[in-house]
Design goal:
This protein is α/β, with parallel strands linked by helices. It has helices at 20-25, 31-37, 58-62, 73-78, 84-89, 99-109, 130-148, 166-178, 202-211, 228-238, 256-264, 273-292, 313-326, 340-347, 357-361, 363-366, 384-393, 398-413; strands spanning 9-14, 38-39, 46-49, 52-55, 113-117, 155-160, 183-186, 214-218, 303-306, 348-353, 370-373. The chain has one domain (9-221, 271-413): TIM Barrel, CATH 3.20.20. The strands form 2 sheets. An 8-stranded parallel β-sheet has the order 1-5-6-7-8-9-10-11. β2 (38-39) and β3 form a beta hairpin. α7 (130-148) packs parallel to α8 (166-178), α8 (166-178) packs parallel to α9 (202-211) and α12 packs parallel to α13. The protein starts with 8 loop residues before the first strand and ends in a 22-residue tail after the last helix. Residues 239-250 have low confidence and may be disordered.
């Protein structure tokens, strides 16, 4: 039987938003309007976004709730989510909405503590109306705070922010900080045509510093068409009702769109966004902040790169350092930029998942900045027992395992350890949501 003697912190695990966020937590007086601006959960086949109704991909949506590590991933991938065959074999994990079911799942996963991230509310970046974004962010944050109240020692909510308005975002950050939130998530993409590193957002990042809240840069799949013409080509390839055109603007809001849209316009079609889109978003943000010295403007800001794997980190650090040296003449001696490698290791953390063998082989590069994530309850989720087995097999020292699987994350968030799980529960079946 597998055992462990230290507390594990899951730095990036998810809830899956229930209807209650819109039906109970959004104020009644604006509920109908707010739903037209953004409304989606996995009990529905329609995404409402910016006043438009878009058919959503049920197969993609339900995959967000089927991430039990002991289910064979090849079997999961052979069946179409949402079908009778899929429901009979798997179904959707109750823990993604019910905190008490989740705590029981955590015991089986080997997880002692967790930072909770949204699934669909990362799409808040696509909402255009600042007031709608504010109302929706407030509703989500209140719901996830109530969810985490089931066990404040083990469950920690991460906020979402309506950065369509810097003023709204600052007000919401102050509100959730008073409630005890340790982190707030921002997607590294364009929000209403503005990238988060642009100067108009500086007051928000200074507020992060002042409050001591962690800036969690969290990526998301990018499968929105770049133009209406490209959307039509994708629709002709995949058939009607794919839900790919979420906005009418011919603007690239995420670098992940390229791989996703090219593959979707080919035969056979397959969702390539998760394979590379997440990574491209994170690499773009990190390269931008390191090569411009952006982090130096906010010397007390703590940052985490999440949902994008970590194997690519040495490449980005090395390339950033190399080309900063080669193009030093462009900024001149009066504008020095700190070494990207030193800056990252002093200021940032990066999430990795259980199957990332290169991280374990290069453990010395990640020892003090790597933070483990399960990605529960999404379909690629894995548990800590898999990580422990792989680390032991590849020779990661036990003291380093302890850092990677919990100590680094708690140092980032300022959270005291709790050890609940000491041995693997061999015979466990997760609770399933009723249809």
């Amino acid at each position: 039987m597998a055992t462990k003697s230290f507390s594990v912190f899951d730095c990036d695990s998810h809830i899956v938003e229930p209807p209650a966020i819109w039906d109970e937590y959004v104020p009644a007086r604006v509920r109908a309007w707010a739903k037209t601006q953004f409304h989606f959960h996995t009990d529905t086949d329609t995404l409402l976004i910016n006043g438009r109704a878009v058919p959503a991909s049920r197969e993609r949506a339900n995959a967000a709730e089927v991430g039990w590590p002991r289910w064979n991933k090849k079997e999961v991938g052979r069946l179409t989510p949402g079908t009778d065959a899929w429901n009979a074999r798997f179904g959707r994990l109750k823990g993604c909405r019910d905190p008490h079911a989740r705590l029981r799942d955590m015991d089986a996963l080997g997880t002692d503590q967790v930072m909770l991230f949204p699934s669909w509310f990362v799409r808040l970046a696509l909402v255009r109306d600042p007031e709608a974004a504010r109302v929706l962010a407030t509703a989500y944050n209140d719901w996830v705070d109530d969810y985490a109240a089931a066990d404040r020692r083990r469950l920690f909510p991460c906020a979402v922010l309506p950065i369509q308005s810097v003023e709204h975002a600052i007000a919401e950050l102050r509100r959730v900080a008073k409630k005890g939130f340790k982190a707030a998530a921002v997607r590294p993409c364009f929000w209403n045509g503005r990238y988060p590193t642009l100067p108009e957002f500086d007051p928000l990042w200074r507020e992060f510093e002042a409050l001591g809240v962690v800036l969690a840069m969290h990526t998301f799949p990018s499968r929105e068409a770049l133009t209406s013409e490209w959307a039509q080509r994708i629709a002709q390839t995949r058939g009607a009702g794919t839900g790919l055109l979420f906005t009418d603007e011919p603007v690239v809001y995420s670098p992940g769109q390229f791989i996703s849209n090219i593959v979707f316009a080919m035969e056979p079609t397959i969702d390539a966004s998760e394979s590379l889109g997440f990574i491209m978003e994170a690499m773009t943000w990190l390269t931008t902040v390191l090569m411009t010295g952006w982090l130096e403007k906010f010397p007390r800001l703590k940052c985490a790169v999440l949902e994008s794997n970590a194997t690519w980190l040495p490449l980005v650090l090395g390339r950033s350092r190399n080309f900063l040296d080669l193009y030093a003449f462009q900024r001149g001696p009066e504008r020095p930029i700190a070494d990207p490698v030193e800056t990252f290791y002093r200021r940032c953390f990066i999430a990795f998942e259980s199957d990332e063998a290169p991280v374990y082989r290069m453990w010395d590069l990640y020892e003090n900045v790597g933070i483990w994530s399960s990605d529960y309850p999404h379909h690629d989720a894995e548990d800590v027992w898999e990580a422990l087995e792989a680390m032991t097999k590849l020779g990661v020292p036990e003291a380093v395992q302890k850092k990677l699987l919990g100590d680094n994350a708690r140092r980032l968030y300022g959270i005291e350890p709790v050890l609940v799980v000491k041995e693997r529960i061999e015979d466990f079946q997760p609770e399933i949501l009723p249809w």
